[in-house]
Write a structure and sequence with these properties.
Length: 266
Amino acid sequence: MKVEEMVDEKVSRRGLLKGAAGTAAGIAVLASGGLSFFSKAEAKDGPTVKWPWSYKKLDPAITAEIAYNEWYRVFCGAAVISSVFGQLRDKIGEPYKSFPIDAFVFLEGGMAGWGTICGSNAGANIVSNMIIGPRIAGPECENGAVIGSNMMKWYSETPLPVYAPKDPRVKTVIVKTTSDSPLCHLSVGKWMKASGYPLGSPERRDRCARVSASVAYKLVEDLNAWKDGKYVEKAAWSPAKNFGITAQQNCTDCHGANIPAPPPGK
């Protein structure tokens, strides 16, 4: 079926997802602004909702448990997204019902296994961005748009994992480590060195599931505070302003004497 024919049929958002997700046409719709198409479709699911999306407060502990168990299905980034958006699907409905949570499984392993940004950090930024808006959106977002950025700072400075699941799949005591970085490679690598467990071990897997749960817990705490108008930015960090280049505060962990620097006067 052609995309044009699908539009003509005026299918519902849910129907479009079920009927087209596995077809080339469905992929084309999603790739060419599918979510905006859903918001304009004549659907039974509810009225059009503009971005940023509405939010209802969630229980951080329940959210963390969902994230922990979802890690074993879709890994870190999608687990964090699912733990929040999955609940908001029930509490609010659209546009959360149409959001393709499982598509973000690629955040696993620091983005398709490349060890870059930890998927749980990326997932937290996706969630906060959809609910609050981008951090550059202006004064109306100042009290909450930095949640995603501050999440990465919290992640870097906190001994993780913080959250202990009610019924852990691995009973071994999981040691806590501080990554000093939002990167998967450093976070996992430092933990492996401290714990002695290899990458493929059940202990490492459960550690990452608990880290995702910890991030989900913290994310909902911050979103709830933002919803109540009580969120306070914990720390301002602007590497571009301080150093003239986008960066982290801990380049030497990886780069040593070979830290790249911007040209003089730039």
